[in-house]
Amino acid sequence: MRFRKISSICAVAFLILCSCKQSYVDELSTQYATFSVDGKGFIRQVADNRTGVNYLAEEGASPLLSLYDGKEYIMPTNLKVEGDNWILTFANQSEAVVSKEVKDGYIRLSLVSLSNRDGIDAIAWGPYATKISQYIGETVGVVRDTTFAVGVQALGINTTEGRPHLGDDATGGCYIDPLPGQEVPDDLKDKIGQQTYDINVNEEGDMPAYVRMIRGNAAVARPYGSDIQFFARDWRKEKVIDYIGRRQTVTALDQDFIGSSIALFAAPSSEAVDVIGKIEVGEGLPHPMMNGEWIKKRKLQNPAYMLYEGRSLDNALNYADSCNFNLVHIGDIFKSWGHFDLHTSRFPEGAEQIKAFTDKAKARGIEIGVHTLTMFTSTHDPYVSPVPSDSLAISGSSVLTKEISATDKDIEIESPEFFTYLGETHSAKIGTEIVSYREVTTEKPYKLLDCTRGQFGTKPTAHQAGDKIDKLLNNCYSGLFPDIHLSDVFAKRLAEVCNETGVGLMDFDGYYGGSPTGHGLYGASRFLKQWFDDLDQKGIISCGSSPFHYWWHIYSFMNWGEPWYDNLRQSQVNYRLENQRYFERNLMPGMLGWFKLEQTYRPEDIEWIQARSAAFDAGYLLRVDESIEQSGFKSHLFEAIREWQKVRNNHLLTAAQREKMKNPKNEFHLEKAGDNAWNLYEVTLKGDNVHKYRSVQTGEPLLSKFTFDNPYEKQPVQFYAMIKVGDEAGAQITNLQILVEGCAPIQVQEILKAGDKLYCDGNSVYVCDEYWKPRKSFAVSETTAWGKGKNNVTVQCDFSSSKAPSVEVEFKSLGNKESITGR
Q1: Residue 721: CB partners within 8 Å, gap ≥ 6?
Q2: pLDDT for res 11
Q3: CA 745 to CA 519: how far, in whole Å?
Q4: Secondary structure letter of residue 179 according to DSSP
Q5: Which stretch is the leader sequence (predicted)?
Q6: Contacts of 180 (CB under 8 A, 6+ apart)
Q7: Run of H or E including 594
Q8: What is the pLDDT of residues 80-92, one digit of tens each?
Q9: Could you tell me the CA-to-CA distances from 655 to 615, 616, 659, 819 in Å, in that order?
Q10: How confident is the model at residue 533, as a pLDDT?
């Protein structure tokens, strides 16, 4: 009976399969999957060859190709197979010839021709609708779950991610979408799932934990799973667009959508990256190799590394050795952005001197990295001053309606269309002069008011009626931009810098997901392609701040998150964690962003960074300079970095240990126990225990009582204490006593003033300066210990006056030891 039931189910399934198959006009199979196409030009099945599971979502249409006329999408209505081509007919009677080729693990599709194309602004590949929703790679163009992956890779820079009606940048956004356990404010609960527009981590210092950040649109979430989407535009006509709050003229280019090509693939999730590697090699996409390894598969793609901005480059190498770092970022090496001259105060001899330093570093096993703000142009660069280039990027142009002298402050123009955009510097160019203006009038005659003539060292000049005036574009650092042709020159020059200096990392900051010229991802990809093509050695690390699909093939990692906005545990912490989710779904190595090594750090501070690095298997950048020499904990900090990174790089932590470390509120201590052995402890810290002067009754002792709940076994007392500034200069405290109930008191017979610090390691109390350098120590009784559970603590001292400093104490304990042994 059971056999009969199974047989009938199989028979029904077979009949359904046969009836569906009859509606297919073509099937293309790789070793992993079969793609079935119907007679109307739609994909109807993406089936795993092993299981037969169809990952295509029936709820969403999946046209092989559609046309976009600037307002609507025109769908295919018929598909014919002619040898290695598909002939697609569309609702407007356009006819496309699409070549098809099954290759190793993927299918290559290319638009060969399109007839009746008048009015067609762009062609769209897909969107291809899938049932997959677990990992939606908005940058890499791959969606996957734990079993299977479906993806698209663009095979040239003229094919970019997204949909043409959304514009040409890697559009994404921030959404109110809490993870399990995250709370949303009551006034936002009705907005869950909606986009929010008031997130600026560089102004706020972080983002709410309940916000999800999407960084592109190569793949997007849908109710049925996901869509994968790419397109190519016809750039051959100049046009004017609305772009980031301004009217923008987009220059015509010799670039059409004919020849647009994609690789379509489906494979087991574990092999998705390998398939992309085959696509890169097979289709001539960038495929950077380092020491014989593809960058996407090398052992340590995401190192911890250092930013050095100090006085001595020799110190940079010494600090790197102390941390066991193999990569040192030395920041900006350019006299200006634009010409990228290398003759600076740090390197007066230019490229030759930099090359000598990079060679010296390589001899010690260290690569040197540098930074630039991509396409940003300094206002003191020769492209701007004293004679501005005609290839500076503009939003648009008008003409003068009246002649002006070299000193006129108001300038009449024919149209204000492009001049209502002011930018940071309010700059316009007339011939070889740059002028700034306060505002433009809104009624005729249109005037630029209160002009500053000869801005940026250009020469004030008389100009005639009818002379052209260009509105210049600003970057956010109050500089300018190149147009798309000058950006090619910038890219070639930066490749030349890499070739002649031997730097091992180029940090491209300031991309913002597209090109400022209005050419979007095509322009941004063109810049990077030019740079990469001109490199002598392709195995250079590149990183940056804004991702997009083409760059995925070139960069080694992306590294965001800055330390400038708050203390260590608060500065962009949610933002850094959200980035880890982005990296995971986009097949990218984890990076935590930038941190700084402060001379005020305690070992717990640097171990907080290291635990997060180990938790997410994520690298980071650590800013270091000579100020660290003031730290009393310098050797402890460097040792913690070395040992934690050994454990991370060799993948010695268990999944359970890493999961605990993902919570930024959890603290840990790693103790070296041998050449290849460590002890890992959980750490409990309880701060905000403040003892300060207050009025008391006659005979009442001036003391403060606190409790410390030690969750671990009995152990010697540890704590930190900081003497906080009072309201009277020179005031002080004496006879500080910390008494744990039932134990011998800890007494500090030392005059303490604001800025002094103390710590107890269980054996001694050390009286330190503001950077934890000890100047005196006092032994602690062996009987002074934290008991397991609640401990009552009393703090008291003598204050020199009612305005004397206060004492802030942080209690510490550790336990739950786990042994770690290297393999």
Answers
A1: 736, 738, 757, 758, 759, 807, 808, 809, 810
A2: 36
A3: 71
A4: P
A5: 1-25
A6: none
A7: strand 591-596
A8: 999 999 999 999 9
A9: 9, 10, 6, 15
A10: 97
Q: Phi/psi class of residue 476: alpha, beta or left (left: φ > 0; alpha: ψ in -120 to 50)? A: alpha
Token readout for 138 is: 């908005």
- Run of H or E including 642: helix 634-649
Prior bond to 805 cis, omega within 30? Answer: no
* Amino acid 13: pLDDT: 37
Tokens (6 digits) for 60: 């969403």
The first and second tokens of residue 109, run together, are 């599709």
What residues pair up with 97 in beta bridges, in sequence order?
87, 113
What is the CATH code for 23-172+215-283?
Answer: 2.70.98
**Which stretches does DSSP call E strand in 269-331?**
289-290, 293-294, 304-308, 327-329
In this predicted model, what pLDDT tens digit does every residue of 405-449 receive, in sequence order? 999 999 999 999 999 999 999 999 999 999 999 999 999 999 999
Helix, strand and coil in the chain, % to nearest 5: 20, 35, 45
What is the token pair recorded at 364? 């010690």
Please state, for a pLDDT cut of 90, what percent of the chain lies above it.
Answer: 90
User: What pLDDT, on a 0 to 100 scale, did the predictor assign at position 313?
Assistant: 93
Phi then psi dihedrals of residue 464, to 5 deg? -95, 155
Task: Give residues with Cβ within 8 angstroms of 270, minimum separation 6.
Answer: none
> Is residue 14 predicted with pLDDT exceeding 50?
no
Q: What's the average model confidence in pLDDT over 313-337?
A: 96
What does 20-69 look like in DSSP terms, one character per residue?
A: HHHTEEEEEE-SSEEEEEETTSBEEEEEETTT--B-B-TTS--BS-EEE-
8, containing H or E segment: helix 2-22
* Phi, psi for residue 643 in degrees, rounded to 5: -70, -40
DSSP 233: E
Tell me the average pLDDT of the chain.
Answer: 94
Instruction: Please report the pLDDT score of residue 12 as a whole number.
Output: 35
pLDDT grade for 763, boundaries at 50, 70 and 90: very high
Q: Tell me: the pLDDT tens digits for 456-514?
A: 999 999 999 999 999 999 999 999 999 999 999 999 999 999 999 999 999 999 887 78
Q: State mean pLDDT over 149-165.
A: 98
* Side-by-side strand order, sheet with 774-779: 667-674, 677-691, 806-821, 718-724, 757-760, 764-768, 774-779
Give which of 38, 30, 40, 45 is closest to 101, Cα–Cα: 30
Residue 251 and residue 238 in contact, taking contact as beta carbons nearer than 8 Å: yes
d(CA 587, CA 733): 57
Q: What residue spans define the domains of the chain? A: 23-172+215-283, 394-472, 683-821
Closest CA to 260 of 150, 84, 170, 126: 126
CA distance 566 to 206: 9
| Distance of alpha carbon 361 from alpha carbon 314, whole angstroms | 9
Residue 566: the pLDDT is 83
Separation between Cα atoms, residue 641 and residue 765, nearest integer Å: 25
- The enclosing H or E element of 96 equals strand 95-102
Q: Are 816 and 771 in contact (CB under 8 A)?
A: no
Does pLDDT of 18 surpass 80? no
**Among residues 477, 555, 553, which one has the least CA distance to residue 510?**
477
Backbone angles phi, psi at 697, to 5 degrees: -70, 160
Instruction: Give residue 8's pLDDT band: very low, low, confident or very high (50, 70, 90).
Output: very low
Q: 394-472 adopts what CATH topology?
A: Thrombin, subunit H (2.40.10)
pLDDT reported for residue 513: 76
DSSP string of 529-541, one letter each residue: HHHHHT-S-S--E
Q: Which fold has domain 683-821?
A: Jelly Rolls (2.60.120)
- For 762-792, b where at least 16 C-beta lie within 10 A, e where not — what string? beebbbbeebbeeeebeebeeebbbbeeebe
Evaluate whether 176 touches 193 at the Cβ level (below 8 Å). yes
Tokens matching residue 740: 């744990």
* 394-472 and 23-172+215-283 share a CATH fold: no
Inter-residue contact 398 to 417 (CB < 8 Å): yes
